[in-house]
Protein 1
Amino acid sequence: MKKHLYILCLFLLAGFVGLAQGKPDYGKITLVIHGGAGTITKANMTLEKERAYKEKLNEALQTGYAVLAKGGTSLDAVEAAVRVMEDSPLFNAGKGAVFTNEGKNELDAAIMDGKTLKAGAIASVTTIRNPISTARAVMEQSEHVMMIGAGAEKFAKEKGQEIVDPSYFHTETRYQQLQKLKDKEKTELDHGSGSGSAEKIFIEGKKFGTVGAVALDAYGNLAAATSTGGMTNKRYGRVGDAPIIGAGTYADNNTCAVSATGHGEYFIRSVVAHDIAALMEYKGYALQQAADEVVMNKLVKRGGEGGVIAVDSKGNVAMPFNSAGMYRGYIKNGKAEVAIYK
Ligand code: ASP
């Protein structure tokens, strides 16, 4: 009898030690992704295009989830999911990046680790195939948070990241989008009403298309990642919200992980991602409530179009957007859901 009691005590002790050490909890693992928000309606979509988007979103979800299911970290999962979308011409990130006013493709990306609150970001790069991986290298292999332009590219090369010729990012669809926007701008200059129209035209191509992922792993750690080509027709050196920690990307194990997509200038001014986390931390809001407050109320009042994806430390998911559509999806308990329209 005494011996049994002794064994029982040992079991209980092992259980407590396991809990204290944060035993992996595979029931909670969650991955959420977006492929951009904007004027995405069924009316301007073909069935074929819709299928292609859904397939790629599913592939990104499955790729990231496989990492989590094998005991990988949320950082590994968000990076893997974003890389799938960066390699696809469908999204405005990596391969499918939009064109600047000067006819170039300039990429921005950021990643954040909710456990350590470490972050890495790069901006205005033109030769890095997978900007999200370089952002991660900045976080893990440098003492900095953000690197830009030529310096970021030099760093990427030194760290063995894949470098491509800028022409790798040239896709005809995106190039035509730029030409259309430029034509409109010229017409507006010749015949337009003036004040405020330049900005209106800038956001005319409102299919933002940035990609992002947020995840909760089996160890209770959150991570967020965002990658983008920015906005069509952006001017020299323009950087959006995606690589700005707290604006387009944020993660903190105490609250949530957020990745945004939309008109970056508004998202920067509203510090969107951190604002959501702050509402949870300081006001005790639930994830959905916090995300809705910022995206559906604050941003709408300020005229900022777009949306976010978010996950909290319990595995709750929120994906609010105030635009017509947002390519999005999440996977939990091995079951994936993807959606495009409202
Ligand atoms: N937020 C991105 C930017 O302003 C654009 C997007 O979401 O597609 O650069």
Protein 2
Amino acid sequence: MKLNSEIIEKFYNILGKENVFTDRETLKHFDYDATERHFLPDIVITPENSKQISEVMKICYENEIYVTPQGGKTGLSGGCLPVKGGVVISFKKMNKIIEIDDKNLTAIIEPGVISADFQKAVKEKGLFFPPDPSSTVESTIGGNVAENAGYTRAVKYGVTKDYILGIEAVLPNGKIVKFGGKNIKDVTGYDVIRLLVGSEGTLAIITKIIVKLLPLPEYRKTLIGYFDNMKVAADFVANIFQHRIIPTAIEFMDKITMNAVENYLNIKLPEAETMILVEVDGNKASCEEDAEKIFSLYKKFGAKDVKVAKDEKEADRFWTIRREALPSLKAKGLDQLEADIVVPRYFLPDFVEKIHKLAENQPIEVATYGHAGDGNLHVTIMYHKSSFDELVSANELLKKYYIEAVKLGGSISGEHGIGITAAPYLNIQLGENEIELLKKIKKAFDEKGILNPGKIFDYEE
Ligand code: LAC
Ligand code: ZN
């Protein structure tokens, strides 16, 4: 059913007029994410608490109105896009850090908290929340939880799901549920928390999050180096692990990405096939020791321009080169398809080689960068939409990449989610039985299919 004035009136009563928007100008601020696709919602609401969301959902459930939760709009798979219109729930006003408990090492936060703000708040207390995606200054914790965001520290610290101890959520029918708490251990009933984390806002609307914190590592050491051969770089990476060192991050960028970063940041990088950044953290002595070993491994494997950051400022400069990969490629101004592929870590160079081979003789440019330590690479296919040939080959290539990844035992998404961009390819990785089970789970939460429709399954352009 479409929204009508009677329903909007009810929203005014629940939320107050100041939290309900129907004018086109405002709606346009909520119609996109980092995929740069646009879908206009019919109405945007900015609730202030879970009770209001519950009341709104009861109305939407009864009237079968589509609802899409939305965080910082930095997603790369379209997870927060209202592809079928309806209501967008923005968490702008549910952005409070309710508590940082330094005795239990936990925090309670609302989903609209900006990741970087939370990072800062815990750091000030000498604590640490490892999940910190590249989009940290804009993305919200709720979005990170919904997408089970990865980030650069996953090699050592795991991904977002490893830090979520408790969740409060509103079901599509308006009922409020709570699972978990501050406990490190809890096996009561099914692990609904794990199910909701990474469910891309399709099962329930997360309204409160309890996270686990760690003590802030006292020290970090960041190194950067460049290789002429990606396979050698992979052997270098494997060797770090063989020396029983688990770095905090191992990041890479190929030549095309490096060139884009050079242009975007107006800097000069060494001529090479690939850049590898390695960071270790922990206590000072062990960091120094590990950094020394890693430095000699860079050298042993023939890397050039190897540098160990002298101080925090220099470390941040190394990180900027890597963090700016995505905006630098976007700045090239071409149409893009993006894939967020994972393969077992050591197969990464074989896969990158395959990617470039498949793109040979195509009127298309393909760049790769990402998290070498996780075998997680972001593939950016750049083309001109206006050319039918390029459009067709870009889409064919994307599909081939997914097929090759799965052949290697990989996955079609490591950290960006399936959303709408990877939805047409879900059956490359999952079989009929698996998809059937996922659909039953969706139905158990959302029998009318009103919550975040068109995601993960059956998306059609
Ligand atoms: C990154 C984002 C795009 O790794 O996932 O920079
Ligand atoms: Zn990434």
